[in-house]
Design brief:
418 residues; mainly alpha; de novo design (two linked rop proteins); 2 domains; 3 strands; 78% helix; 3% strand
Length: 418
């Protein structure tokens, strides 16, 4: 029923929607040429920076070496050629075809930059002592960021329904994964840290995911009914939105501290809770804090999703003889589902980042490596935790976007893709 209603709504506004989409696409192309130029210039700047930092030991200060010294002339020439080509293309008005070309360059530069670092580290360490470490230097990071700028510009300049967007999104990370499995990066200090902490890394990654996804699941079960109540009841709206917004403003460490004290008192007053694992420190206060942080985006998006449903769709349901419950389940909630899903996605990505701080109160997670690296002045150990958190956040974000796309009603999906 709700698919028919959304399809009718979409059909009636297809012409105007198509015109708006075309105008927006042209605007993105116009803006994209300037952003692509910035990315190309950053890529050229990276060539003048050190690409590897060589240290005599894990904690020693590093000495930077340039691109040619790291990888040799052939690979350095390929990298320079790609960035010059990107600069030449970005000087022209951006079209869909040029967006494809810039996207290909950005996709290639992601694995090639890391390939240069990996092969350069292997080359340098062949003649060094066993204690010598080779770390990624500024040139690699700037080159990776410039590649991301090009890739993002290209994807925003392509039509929303283009298959090329999917290929560009997955090709680069997949190539990096293949290079990693093949052992190309084994000489880098980051991978040396991983090899020395592999078992602990797997354990902490599992804990991090359990904390993040568990808190969002519990938070969604609480926040969605609260968002519905705020949309249905004008009196409930203000306190629900106000309290959830107030919780979000509390710094994470302060919130952990506020939760630790009452939990500690409860665990001492009731030993049975302590035996169940509910203590002032550990996973319990971290889970409670992450649940509280997940409430705001889900509540607000649920409220907004229900409020933005077209009254004409509800009237159509009433005209067809539906009762209030049928209208809610067959029309209102399906139409609001994409926006509710966006709230859950935001909460999930936010939770992955906030869970890193939970290591400070004994909850474990990837924050363990971040804070251990800070304590030992080991930057690559910090990167091991931080980069994995970023990768998990991006993966969860991509998965959530795909699920939202699948769950979006057909009529709304067609309208978005115009």
């Amino acid at each position: 029923m709700w698919r028919w209603i959304t399809s009718r709504q979409t059909d009636s506004s297809l012409d105007s929607t198509g015109q708006v989409a075309t105008t927006q696409h042209r605007a993105r192309l116009s803006q994209g040429s300037h952003v692509a130029l910035l990315g190309s210039l950053l890529g050229l700047i990276s060539l003048a920076l050190p690409w590897l930092s060589i240290r005599e030991s894990r904690l020693a200060a590093g000495e930077g070496i340039g691109l040619v010294s790291s990888v040799g002339i052939p690979l350095a020439f390929a990298i320079v050629t790609l960035w010059i080509a990107a600069l030449i293309l970005s000087l022209r008005p951006l079209t869909t075809r040029l967006a494809h070309a810039l996207g290909v360059i950005g996709t290639l530069m992601l694995p090639i930059s890391l390939l240069a670092a990996g092969t350069g580290a292997t080359k340098v360490l062949d003649t060094a002592t066993a204690m010598t470490r080779a770390s990624l230097a500024g040139g690699v990071w700037v080159s990776l960021f410039a590649a991301y700028v090009l890739l993002h510009t290209a994807m925003s300049g392509l039509p929303g329904h283009s298959k090329a967007r999917r290929y560009l999104f997955f090709a680069g990370p997949l190539a990096v994964l293949v290079l990693g499995i093949s052992g190309t990066f084994d000489s880098l200090s980051l991978m040396v840290e991983f090899a020395g902490n592999e078992q602990r890394f797997v354990q902490e990654t599992g804990r991090h995911l359990a904390l993040s996804l568990g808190s969002v699941t519990i938070g969604a079960c609480i926040a969605i009914p609260l968002g519905i109540a705020a949309a249905r009841n004008a009196r409930a709206k203000r306190p629900i939105l106000l309290i959830s917004s107030a919780i979000e403003t509390i710094p994470s460490l302060a919130l952990f501290g506020l939760i630790i004290a009452p939990l500690s008192a409860l665990s001492f007053a009731y030993p049975a809770l302590r035996e169940m694992g509910i203590r002032g420190v550990g996973a319990t206060p971290a889970l409670i804090a992450l649940v509280l942080y997940s409430l705001l985006p889900i509540i607000h998006n649920t409220y907004a999703g229900l409020k933005q449903v077209d009254p004409a769709a509800l009237d159509a349901g009433e005209g067809m003889g539906m009762n209030r419950r049928q209208i809610s389940w067959r029309i209102e909630f399906p139409l609001a589902l994409p926006l509710i899903g966006e709230g859950v996605r935001t909460a999930a990505v936010q939770s992955v980042g906030n869970a890193a701080v939970a290591a400070l109160i004994g909850a474990g997670g990837l924050g363990h490596f971040i804070f251990q690296g800070l304590g030992q002045a080991a930057p690559d150990l910090i990167l091991l935790g931080a980069l994995t958190v970023i990768a998990l956040a991006l993966a969860i974000d991509a998965l959530a976007r795909s699920l939202i796309q699948i769950l979006t009603p057909t009529g709304l999906r067609i309208e978005r893709n115009q």
